[in-house]
Structure formats: structure tokens, C-alpha cells
């Protein structure tokens, strides 16, 4: 399954290239090497369903989930980070997977400089040497989930309404999905938050 998710970005390059031609934000290039730009209000979700295994990978600017991107120093900021992490640690509720599918979390991984993960110091040092005016940190939050679903046929759709309502600063989620009916890509919004597998 891991190979499937690693292949996903390559399989969808034509879709991503087309999206970049239509509206690419050159000002905030994503510094972690994933496809797309760091754009506040926009997140990305890669989803793959293979047999009974569902894998979801969410990538979002921290601004969308906690309201800032700097290291949390105040008690209020630390509380926001802790609350976002606690919510992200409950993916069955966050992604509204149909109960009939019988999905169980088998593995999950959350990472972000805001969670104490080390930022890319080499990139930051290069920016400082170049006197880059955009030296501020573009913190991201990455959440990677593996589920085993007893009845995967019941996974007929993916509903992100709860994710949008929980993190209202997220205005659009670029979804790339590989499922039984092939691959598809679309943008979901708070008013159009569901995608069929």
C-alpha cells in the first residue's frame, strides 16, 4: 500500500500540472518538495483504497488548522496546537467514514514543526544567507493515516464536511483519489465537501 501512495503523485502529474497552469502561487513555493504551493486556506488530501486498506494523507499549512505558523510560545497558542493535534488523532470522526465500512485505524503519523518536529535547518540557513524577505516559517501539518476496513464496499464516498467545520480557515481541499473506479482529482469546499469513490 505504501508503494501505491508513493506512486500516486506520479500517476496524477498530468492533473497537477494542469492545475498549476491555471493558478500557481509563485510567491509561496512549498518548501517540503510536495506538489503544489503553500497557500493559506488550501489543503491537500491524497486518498487510496486498495482492497480493505484505506490510506489518507492530509497536508495543510498550519495557518488553516491553528491560525498561525510560528512556534507556539504563548499558552493560548500552545493550547491551539494541542487541540488541533487531538482532533487530528481522531481520524474516524474527522473524515466521517461510513460506520458500515467497519474501518479501524491501523497506523497514523502526525508531523509538523509546531508539534516539536525539527524544521529543515538547511533551507532556513540558505534563506538567511540570501537575505530572503520571505524568511518567515511556512509551517505545515502532515497527517498520514492507514485504515483497515471490514466492508470496503460500504466506502462509497469520502465526506470532508466535518474537517471543514472543525478547521473553518480551510476553504479548499485538493483531493487526489485512487479507488475501485480508478483515479480522480477534484477540489472540495465547505459547500461541496463529498467525493464518491
Can you describe this structure?
The structure is a single chain. This protein has 197 residues and is of the alpha+beta class. It has one domain. The chain has a 6-stranded mixed sheet. A two-stranded antiparallel ribbon has the order 5-8. The longest helix has 14 residues. The protein is globular, with a radius of gyration of 17 Å. About 23% of the residues have low confidence. InterPro entries: ZrgA-like. Pfam families: ZrgA (PF10986). Keywords: Signal.
Poorly predicted regions = 6-35, 120-135
> Gyration radius, to the nearest Å?
17 Å
Report strand order across the widest sheet.
3-4-2-1-6-7
Number of discrete domains = 1
Number of helices: 7
Order of helices and strands: HHEEHHHEHEEHEEE
The whole-number mean of residue pLDDT values reads 79
- Helix/strand-derived class? alpha+beta
The general outline is globular
**What assembly state would you assign to the polypeptide chains in this entry?**
single chain
Distance between the termini: 17 Å
Which sheet architecture does the biggest sheet show? Answer: 6 strands, mixed
Strand content: 25-35%
Helix content: 25-40%
Could you tell me the number of beta strands? 8
Signal peptide: 1-19
Protein name: Zinc-binding protein
InterPro entries: ZrgA-like (IPR021253)
Pfam family, one: ZrgA
Compact summary:
This protein has helices spanning 2-11, 13-22, 62-66, 75-88, 91-94, 121-130, 161-166; strands at 42-50, 53-61, 103-111, 140-149, 157-159, 172-179, 182-188, 194-196. With 197 residues, it is an alpha+beta fold.
Amino acid at each position: 500500500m505504501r508503494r501505491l501512495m508513493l506512486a500516486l503523485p506520479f500517476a496524477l502529474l498530468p492533473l497537477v500540472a494542469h492545475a498549476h497552469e491555471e493558478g500557481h502561487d509563485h510567491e509561496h513555493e512549498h518548501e517540503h518538495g510536495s506538489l503544489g504551493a503553500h497557500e493559506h486556506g488550501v489543503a491537500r488530501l491524497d486518498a487510496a483504497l486498495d482492497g480493505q486498506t484505506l490510506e489518507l494523507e492530509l497536508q495543510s499549512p498550519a495557518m488553516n488548522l491553528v491560525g498561525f505558523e510560528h512556534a507556539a510560545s504563548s499558552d493560548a497558542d500552545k493550547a491551539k496546537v494541542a487541540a488541533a493535534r487531538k482532533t487530528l488523532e481522531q481520524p474516524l470522526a474527522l473524515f466521517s467514514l461510513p460506520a458500515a465500512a467497519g474501518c479501524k485505524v491501523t497506523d497514523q503519523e502526525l508531523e509538523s514543526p509546531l508539534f516539536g518536529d525539527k524544521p529543515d535547518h538547511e533551507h532556513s540557513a540558505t534563506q538567511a544567507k540570501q537575505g530572503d524577505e520571505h524568511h518567515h516559517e511556512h509551517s505545515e501539518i502532515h497527517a498520514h493515516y492507514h485504515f483497515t476496513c471490514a466492508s470496503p464496499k460500504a466506502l462509497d464516498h469520502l465526506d470532508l464536511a466535518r474537517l471543514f467545520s472543525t478547521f473553518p480557515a480551510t476553504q479548499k481541499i485538493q483531493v487526489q483519489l485512487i479507488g475501485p473506479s480508478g483515479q480522480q482529482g477534484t477540489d472540495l469546499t465547505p459547500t461541496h465537501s463529498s467525493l464518491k469513490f
